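REQUEST FORM: STRUCTURE PREDICTION
Request ID: SP-0412
Submitted by: Lab K.M.
Chain count: 1
Length (residues): 271
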Amino acid sequence: MENAKLKELNLLDKFLFDEAMEDQETYQMVISILMENEVELLGGTETEKELRISSEIRQVRLDVVGMDREGKLYYTEMQKRNTGNLIRRSRYYQAQLDVSLLEPGSIDFNLLNDSCFIMIAPFDLFGKGLYRYTFEEVCRECPELKLEDGAVRVFINTKGTNREDFSQEFLDFMDYITRTIDESAGRSGSGRIKKIHKKICRIRRSEKAGVKFMQRWEELAYAKQDGKEEGIKENSLNVAKRMLKDGRLTLEKIAEYAGLSYEEVKNLKTE
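STATUS: Completed
RESULT:
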């Protein structure tokens, strides 16, 4: 990502995804396509939303958050790389999200909003070849009995193989996520995908978005250059230290950008 120009980014890249999803209509169309269900969002969307219920507990920062007219919350995360901890991370995120929904002192847990956590990735976390994995709590002894606690976790695999189970619009969007180009949008018969692509094209032409992207790119590039003479590993550690000091990125993102494991970054923060 760091060597790419803004126009070369795909929706898989967090920067472009976040910029596009700031537009409520765009996010609404994306959710509707992914869930194959018409979703009408209420109010604006939030990108890079940070949740921290205590200074002693690690923060959660989600790519995009929106709410529909029934009060159901949609949290969407774009994940380009398999870090090996995504399933349990989604559990932690869901727990943090739930805690953030109730006011201090609230005793009625029925006030919790229904929620849908969606993670989009270009790989198959579960190895079953499915495009979409939807998880709801069910009873082991009585599988037809659902807990119905209002929480759903969805994992989207853009490389699925069960094409017969999905609409052509959904399949076209899977291709568009990984190849966000005129050809992919033009080949699709979906009006929503064409509208999404128009939004992407406006972002790519935007001077403001271009400056924002270059600033982020340069910050990472300069940080990495500083530690070059000390070797690749030391360089990565220096980059991570600078990012930790800056405090604007999550530990997962620091690990991704610096080329380190999550545990290494976590240890750096402790030190």
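NOTES: The chain has a mean pLDDT of 86.
Reviewed by: T.R.
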